[in-house]
Amino acid sequence: MRHPVLIALCLAGMASLSACGRGNSDAEVDRALKSVNVIDESNLNDIMLTVGSPDESVAYFRGASAKAPERVDLKRGLAKSLVRANRPSEAIAIWADVAASPGATNDDRVDYAEALIRANEWKRAEAELNRIPPTHETFQRYRLEAMVADSNKNWTKADSFYEIASGLTTKPSGVLNNWGYSKLTRGDAAGAERLFLEAITYDSKLFTSKNNLILARGAQRKYDMPVIQMTQTERAQLLYTLALTAVKQGDVTVGKGLMQEAVDTHPQYFEAAARSLETLDASVTN
């Protein structure tokens, strides 16, 4: 007769424990869901900054930041998105707010300086970079320092910063291209040629460096095409650049020959080169 009573007591105890366990379980589930939401939001923020279109990214972070104005990470995302969308003037105000916040980092100040440079605010950018301690040694920081030194025509400093920056990244093609262009504007065409060639070795698809290389060679009256990887269309365009360089330097006959080669090389009708060749022929005839 005692067995049914014992079973009933055990069942009651199990029910009680189950209720307590369910309460603890609910709290744990809530915490877990919050963690998942934070992870999901973080992933979404990263996606919007890297994969989403610039305008979509701006809209997303603007809306999120308006709902949580105390969140520095959302303001940071908005500022980066505005820069991606080629709206640096709008980004400046956001970056200034981020840089002044307690959670600001040296990377924030570097990004702030970049936005200022993109908005042609060179002096303000220089001042912002000067606020960053010298111990903060990053590729991005030195890339901007080199650009500021360039703008001030402080060539020694610029060369030093370009060299440091190129050594702090595994993808230095962009900074090498900028360094080469700096050398070209100073009249050091040979130095520029070496840097453009080095940039191409890191990124054989960087047409800007290929075109700049042709400009540097043309400035030295080197009118033969360099041995670099290029498509047929690129070769035609580079021949055209070289032809224009030759004509500007007074080597008209060489320029005409290069221009004709550009027209013949292009896989389609090369209108710009053909029109320039006709104009050149007419001017020589007259």
Properties at a glance:
Serine Threonine Protein Phosphatase 5, Tetratricopeptide repeat, about 80% helix
Helix proportion range? over 70%
The number of distinct β-strands equals 0
CATH architecture title of the domain at 48-136: Alpha Horseshoe
N-C termini distance: 127 Å
Estimated structural class: mainly alpha
Q: What's the overall average pLDDT, rounded? A: 87
β-sheet strand percentage: under 5%
Can you summarize the main beta sheet? Answer: none
What can you tell me about this protein's structure?
Residues 1-21 form the signal peptide. It comes from Cereibacter changlensis JA139. InterPro entries: TPR-like_helical_dom_sf. It holds the Pfam family TPR_16. The protein is mainly alpha-helical and 286 residues long. Among the domains are: 48-136, Tetratricopeptide repeat domain (Serine Threonine Protein Phosphatase 5, Tetratricopeptide repeat); 230-286, no CATH class. It is built from 14 helices and no strands. It has helices at 2-50, 54-67, 72-84, 88-100, 106-118, 122-130, 139-151, 155-166, 173-186, 189-202, 207-219, 232-248, 252-265, 271-285. Helix 3 runs antiparallel to helix 4, helix 5 (106-118) runs antiparallel to helix 6 and helix 7 (139-151) runs antiparallel to helix 8 (155-166). It starts with a helix and ends with a helix.
